[in-house]
TrEMBL record:
<dbReference type="GO" id="GO:0016042">
    <property type="term" value="P:lipid catabolic process"/>
</dbReference>
<dbReference type="GO" id="GO:0016788">
    <property type="term" value="F:hydrolase activity, acting on ester bonds"/>
</dbReference>
<dbReference type="InterPro" id="IPR036514">
    <property type="entry name" value="SGNH_hydro_sf"/>
</dbReference>
<keyword id="KW-0378">Hydrolase</keyword>
<feature type="signal peptide">
    <location>
        <begin position="1"/>
        <end position="23"/>
    </location>
</feature>
<comment type="similarity">
    <text>Belongs to the 'GDSL' lipolytic enzyme family.</text>
</comment>
<dbReference type="InterPro" id="IPR035669">
    <property type="entry name" value="SGNH_plant_lipase-like"/>
</dbReference>
<dbReference type="InterPro" id="IPR001087">
    <property type="entry name" value="GDSL"/>
</dbReference>
<keyword id="KW-0443">Lipid metabolism</keyword>
<dbReference type="Pfam" id="PF00657">
    <property type="entry name" value="Lipase_GDSL"/>
</dbReference>
<keyword id="KW-0732">Signal</keyword>
<keyword id="KW-0442">Lipid degradation</keyword>
<protein>
    <recommendedName>
        <fullName>GDSL esterase/lipase At5g03610-like</fullName>
    </recommendedName>
</protein>
């Protein structure tokens, strides 16, 4: 039996003021005035909602590439949110936890995502997606944003798979997974509808990436082979999601809901990585850059006496994965490049 241990834990925050998002000015702003981005989900899009004391994302070596020190992202640098924001021609929106300090960033929207969470409660004690949307609704009631603001807004909703990680950790078997997938996607569709009903005009939801290709799944093959069994979890989720979103769009007048195909984007980015690296010494595109020295440790681990118990690769800029479950900035950039041809759907 395969061991299922993928969980997208994100723990921790960002120096918002120092943030210098590499903005590729999209044409979006010219058409729509000031677009705002509202973000819901987990560590693939969290830019710093967890507290500094709880999250590994606030520990070295997270953030070493961008912004240069740990800042609450679960990567060495930028994550999906930052690239989507740059596509829209705006700065990365302020994390919800920092809204009172991040007034300069308020015009760009807000990020409600917490690493490790899902549509249901998971192994981390963070706000599930329903609670994240409650935070959003509360702020709308408090008039942080007007209806007019929402007219030119986009939501980014990301579900990397923590619900499945939690389910499989509890059950230890894939039995019952199809029914569970149906309930995950059903809850997700209620969430998407609710965000739309709150006034957001366009909602992008990520398909699941290939969880069987994450280092946590490929370690047993020395990072050589993706696990097809675990990838089937993603594929089934994505199939149900596709049908569900088609139905939602059928019910809404404009096609309000768009799927961002992370599965295909990860796969083509990984392939590009292979070709690019060819027969060079980096011939394990699935191997993470940052790892614990042994399996008891992970990226960011230190002993009680402060001794580092992890290693960081020599060239983070050429690795796809940063740690066991998260892409590096280079990885996210490659994923973004693969998604880019489809992002006109956000207009
Ligand atoms: C979300 O979390 C709240 C608080 O723990 C809980 O009451 C609610 O049932 C959860 N929602 C879902 C859909 O799991
Ligand atoms: C990886 O897959 C290849 C091709 O399917 C196979 O030949 C090889 O034995 C696998 N390696 C491991 C370590 O499982
Ligand atoms: C969309 O709605 C039309 C008419 O209501 C229906 O015939 C069609 O089957 C629907 N398509 C999907 C994918 O639900
Ligand atoms: C720190 O503690 C570990 C055991 O936990 C020990 O092996 C190591 O030598 C110690 N390092 C220092 C610098 O004291």
């Amino acid at each position: 039996m395969e061991k299922f241990s993928f969980l997208f834990f994100a723990v921790s925050l960002v120096l918002i003021t120092a943030e210098e998002v590499h903005a590729v000015m999209g044409s979006y702003r010219h058409h729509h005035g000031s677009v705002k981005l509202f973000v819901f989900g987990d560590s693939y899009v969290d830019t710093g909602n967890w507290g500094k004391s709880v999250a590994t994302s606030w520990k070295l070596p997270y953030g070493i590439t961008f912004p240069g020190k740990p800042a609450g992202r679960f990567s060495d640098g930028r994550v999906l949110t930052d690239y989507i924001a740059s596509f829209l021609g705006i700065r990365s929106p302020v994390p919800y936890q920092w809204r009172k300090m991040g007034t300069k960033l308020l015009p760009y929207g807000m990020n409600f995502a917490y690493g490790g969470t899902g549509v249901f409660n998971t192994l981390v004690n963070g706000p599930n997606m329903t609670t994240q949307i409650n935070f959003f609704q509360q702020l709308l009631e408090e008039k942080w944003y007007t209806k007019h603001d929402l007219d030119s807004s986009i939501a980014l909703v990301c579900l990397a798979g923590n619900d499945y990680g939690t389910y499989l950790a509890g059950k230890g078997t894939m039995q019952g997974l199809p029914a569970f997938t149906t309930s995950v996607v059903h809850q997700l569709s209620l969430n998407l509808k609710r965000i739309h009903e709150l006034g957001v005009k366009k909602i992008a939801v990520t398909a699941m990436g290939p969880v069987g290709c994450l280092p946590v799944s490929t370690a047993s093959s020395s990072y050589q082979n993706c696990s097809e069994t675990q990838n089937s979890v993603s594929k089934f989720h994505n199939q149900i999601l596709q049908q569900t979103v088609q139905k939602l769009n059928n019910q809404s007048k404009e096609s309000a809901f768009v799927i961002l195909n992370l599965y295909g984007a990860f796969m083509s980015a990984l392939k590009g990585q292979e070709n690019h690296l060819g027969n060079s010494k980096f011939n394990f595109p699935l191997k993470p850059c940052c790892m614990g020295v042994t399996s008891e440790y992970s990226c960011g681990s230190v002993d009680v006496n402060g001794t580092k118990r992890y290693t960081v690769c020599e060239h983070p800029e050429s690795s796809f994965f940063w740690d066991k479950v998260h892409p590096s900035q280079n990885g996210w950039h490659a994923v973004y490049s693969a998604l880019r041809p489809f992002l006109h759907q956000l207009y």
